[in-house]
Amino acid sequence: MTVSLFSFVDLYRRQLDAAAHLLTKGADFAITNGVSEQDMLGWRLADDMHPLSFQLMVVINFTRSWTARVAGLPVPEAVTADLDLAAYRAAIADAKAFLATITADQFAGRDDVPLTVQLGETMEPTLPAAQWLTVFGTTNIYFHLSMVYAILRMKGVKIGKMDLFAAGL
């Protein structure tokens, strides 16, 4: 298998599948245990960390925004962290549909294209497109998906490492 920037489109689709799977497992657990949807989406790993809803938001937004930027496409409008369960499911489906529209040709020759992106209020680095996608985007997607997993495990949801491979190997 040749690894190209376009390879990350399928990788990110798989992470969206894992997020959807974990969300379903969490929702089923919440229903079984009398926990409201809103309370479940507010679960946190630690008091000073963002809740489950935020972690899902980042996974969804980063899969779309970083592939769009690197492919030279307009960045889709970001989803917010105040969605309900149905809206998160729809946002995951929309993100997968967006990824399905991206072609390998849109990534051709873009590895070294400099991209300047505002991060927070104080940082505006310029990095090659490939570095943004392979390092920054991917690290953040995996981190926030891992937080979804950790929050659910901490609350007692019966999940394991294989649940991160919901889209298969």
Outline of the structure:
This protein is mainly alpha-helical and 169 residues long. It has helices spanning 7-32, 37-41, 52-71, 85-101, 129-155, and strands at residues 114-116, 126-128. It starts with 6 loop residues before the first helix and ends in a 14-residue tail after the last helix.
Could you explain the architecture of this structure?
With about 170 residues, the chain is mainly alpha-helical. The protein has 5 helices and 2 strands. The chain has helices at about 5-30, 35-40, 50-70, 85-100, 130-155; strands spanning about 115, 125-130. Strands 1-2 form a two-stranded antiparallel sheet. Helix 1 packs antiparallel against helix 4, helix 1 packs parallel to helix 5 (about 130-155) and helix 3 runs parallel beside helix 4. The chain is globular. The two termini are about 15 Å apart. The mean pLDDT is about 95.
In terms of DSSP E residues, the strand content is under 5%
| Amino- and carboxy-terminal Cα gap | 14 Å
**Overall 3D geometry?**
globular
H/E series: HHHHEEH
Total helical elements: 5
Largest sheet: 2 strands, antiparallel
Count of extended strands: 2
Helix content: 55-70%
Question: Tags for this entry?
Answer:
169 residues, mainly alpha, two-stranded antiparallel sheet, 5 helices, globular
Write the layout of secondary structure elements.
Elements: H1 7-32, H2 37-41, H3 52-71, H4 85-101, E1 114-116, E2 126-128, H5 129-155
Antiparallel strand pairs: 1-2
Helix pairs in contact: 1-3, 1-4, 1-5, 3-4, 3-5
